[in-house]
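Hi V.,

You were right to ask for the full record rather than a summary. Here it is.
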Amino acid sequence: MRRSIIALMLLVFPATLQAQGAKVSSPVELTRLADELKPGQWVWAPEIAPEGPVTIYVDLSAQRATVYRNGVRIAVTTISSGKPGHETPTGVFTILQKDAKHHSSKYNNAAMPYMERLTWDGVALHAGGLPGYPESHGCVHLPLDFSRALFGITALGGTVVVAGSAGKPMTAGAAGVLAPASAAEASMGQLADSGGFIWQPQRAPTGPLTIVISRTDQAAVVLRNGVEIGRTIVQIPRDVPDTRVLTLTHEKDGSEHWIYIGVPGHEGQSGTALDAAVAAQVRVPRGFYTAVKSSLVPGTTILVTQASIGQGSVGQKVTIMDSVPAEVAKTD
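Predicted structure:
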């Protein structure tokens, strides 16, 4: 009987169950092994940053996912994203639901172990096949043991950034991290009429905070638990095409710092603090600054992108997150 069960599992997850992982304890080992990963392989080094908020960065171009805790890279894995016709959407997502024993409601009750939902229409992180190329129906497949470990350190409302395009190598100048769709919109005219910003924290009183700044729109949007609670005009240099991601960390001495997450093209910045001179280049209305500052908590994420975030710009309208609060696990 046991052999039959094992054989069945190999049929369901042939590449996943044979995937090889390594647990290491130093940044040097993590970097060395991460650079050599083959399809199905992963490396995990949680001791490098044992505490702090977790952010996941999925690079569709490289078919890799990187896990950061307190702004420090602690794990890297190979993935398999959506195949042609079922492409994985790019964007900044929140973990809406977690279910270790989930089964698909769309694809013949297929097992989706350690599922972490990103959208309510079926996109999630979960254990699945890893053939070395995009082959899912839109989800991000992870090695089984890696997905189990990741499931153990994430929380509802955690931030997941999905960027790139399968089959198209990403360069340092790549933009457009946000997903093409409609969003809760506030035009530049509305912002001008309200003193330059809109602030409605009552729409989502609690939960993780994400701030997205668009160089194209010269605007920013604030989301808490995936719900838009604020929007403002911004002054920020337009002529820098790079995408940057930062997270707010809490140090042992009680101080807080904005730390870069090393997105493709800027891996060397991972874990470094935001320079005060760079921060000074971003200007927002004083009332908005005061409101946001009082709401910041460790784990808050800032994404700076060329992509548009609403009406009144030359760019594309985008959805930044599913505007639905996170839920406890349920069976679809």
